[in-house]
Amino acid sequence: MAEQSRVVLVTGGSKGIGRTIALQFRDAGYRVAATYRSGDVPEGVLGVVCDITDQGQVDQAFDTVEAELGPVEIVVANAGVTKDTLLLRMSDDDWNTVIDTNLTGTFRVVRRASRAMMRARFGRVILISSVVALLGSAGQINYSSSKAALVGMARSISRELGTRNVTANVIAPGFIETDMTAVLADDVIAGYKARIPAGRLGSVDDVAQAALFLAGDHAGYITGAVLPVDGGLGMGH
């Protein structure tokens, strides 16, 4: 099978990084599906409404993609949420909501995807983490914990499925220009830029290009890796 005709599933594909990843895979010739909870997905991408905290919806989403496009060969686990607050103010619900989506939801998706990957003896698992996974972030103990755990997940998948030609890697974006950062005050943005060796925020295209690389045949011997896309912010972590 030609590399660019493989089936890709992107979770959280309605906006931001996930939407751009879906777009760039589509433009590269892949057959792309994307899950979303609200909004829409890019034209030419098969949109599947799915809440990844619900295993039944995850299974239904995969059934739909398999029926329309074929078995999922590349999964980009991007869907995530935040509930930021300081440790002493963080409720169990604040913790559980973020962990259940970012970590357990990713587990549900990857577990379902791995069946076909093992049968086909090919698979690419790409987990979208964050620079705060290893750098830490005040007010984001739930989020940083969920994103750090993806590193252990990818490396365990690599050890379990590596002989089946399934790779599992982590992309750790830094501060990326999205709708979420667009509402921040200029002085806050300036503060971020001062901490980033590259002197600028990243773009969603930067992250999407990293995903395209890891999905490609040329990255077949890369597994269990953490690829920072952060302008150097997380160096040494």
TrEMBL record:
<dbReference type="GO" id="GO:0032787">
    <property type="term" value="P:monocarboxylic acid metabolic process"/>
</dbReference>
<feature type="transmembrane region" description="Helical">
    <location>
        <begin position="122"/>
        <end position="143"/>
    </location>
</feature>
<dbReference type="InterPro" id="IPR036291">
    <property type="entry name" value="NAD(P)-bd_dom_sf"/>
</dbReference>
<comment type="similarity">
    <text>Belongs to the short-chain dehydrogenases/reductases (SDR) family.</text>
</comment>
<dbReference type="InterPro" id="IPR057326">
    <property type="entry name" value="KR_dom"/>
</dbReference>
<dbReference type="InterPro" id="IPR050259">
    <property type="entry name" value="SDR"/>
</dbReference>
<dbReference type="GO" id="GO:0016491">
    <property type="term" value="F:oxidoreductase activity"/>
</dbReference>
<keyword id="KW-1133">Transmembrane helix</keyword>
<dbReference type="InterPro" id="IPR020904">
    <property type="entry name" value="Sc_DH/Rdtase_CS"/>
</dbReference>
<dbReference type="Pfam" id="PF13561">
    <property type="entry name" value="adh_short_C2"/>
</dbReference>
<feature type="domain" description="Ketoreductase">
    <location>
        <begin position="6"/>
        <end position="179"/>
    </location>
</feature>
<keyword id="KW-0560">Oxidoreductase</keyword>
<dbReference type="InterPro" id="IPR002347">
    <property type="entry name" value="SDR_fam"/>
</dbReference>
<keyword id="KW-0472">Membrane</keyword>
<keyword id="KW-0812">Transmembrane</keyword>
<protein>
    <submittedName>
        <fullName>Beta-ketoacyl-ACP reductase</fullName>
    </submittedName>
</protein>
